[in-house]
Design brief:
By secondary structure, this protein is mainly alpha-helical. The chain has two domains: about 5-195, Up-down Bundle (Alpha-lytic protease prodomain-like), CATH 1.20.1510; about 205-275, Cation efflux protein, cytoplasmic domain (Alpha-Beta Plaits), CATH 3.30.70. Helix content is about 70%, strand content about 10%. It is built from eight helices and three strands; from the N terminus they run αααααααββαβ. Strands 1-2-3 form a three-stranded mixed β-sheet. A hairpin with a 2-residue loop joins strand 1 and strand 2. Helix 1 (about 5-30) packs antiparallel against helix 4 and helix 2 (about 30-55) runs antiparallel to helix 5 (about 135-165). The N and C termini lie far apart (about 50 Å).
Amino acid sequence: MNNEKITVLGIIFNSILFILKLIAGIASRSTAVISDAFNSLTDIISSIFIHIAVKIGNKKADLDHPFGHDRAEPVAAFISAVFAAVLGIELIRNAIESMYHQNDIKLGIFTVAVLVMTILIKAWMWLSLKEKKDSPALKAMSIDSRNDNFTSGVALIGLIGAYLGMNYIDSISALIISFFILGTAYRIGIENIDYLMGKSASDELMHKIRLMTLGINGIKGINDLRAHYVGNRVHVEIHVEVNKSITTKKSHDLGKIVQRKIESMPNVCRAFIHIDPV
């Protein structure tokens, strides 16, 4: 299944879960379940942003964007993180208020079924998306699906605790969910700011580039190597040393071999090769 279809499924599932959890939260009068419902609302908005971003990111390079549209996904993930952070702060306020104005919780089969169904659906989404490491937006959706298992589980515990006469557990569960939303928003936001700010590539990738380049027959050494993210893809600039006695065509051909090999590596978008005669 391609990335665009995955994001459409995400929008559909999250919309259904939001409606069901909101109804269940109102029916049970559980602050934790209502908080979890609004957590699903952030998922809907995130899924819409991610769907748009994936669609834009799949476009080929053009005159206005000669290096492609790879920045679209980190932008979408960052906007989603900001929205989640704002909602998380608001839910913290509501959870604290609920500690002083506790409701009589009504534990019903419908509410329990909705939370259990959420855990199962989100577990399936997490397992389906966790291998999509090349896409920041889908990676964010995967992390969010995993986190939803936790928040729905916490809401279920709070609901059961309140049903047993410990209403404060529902408020504490709502507070835990709120802080969890806030923490996830922070982590996703920081990661995607790094993408947008041109964070350096990992030491592991740099090491692989060095080994592969030095393994090419005719390359005598490397005197400079830099790599940074442009969106979610890496641009590489490398200075390779070749024998000064070879022809210009031969040194050019060696540069093209280096370029093709580096650009064939996962997550690498462009490689810029500079030839140094030695």
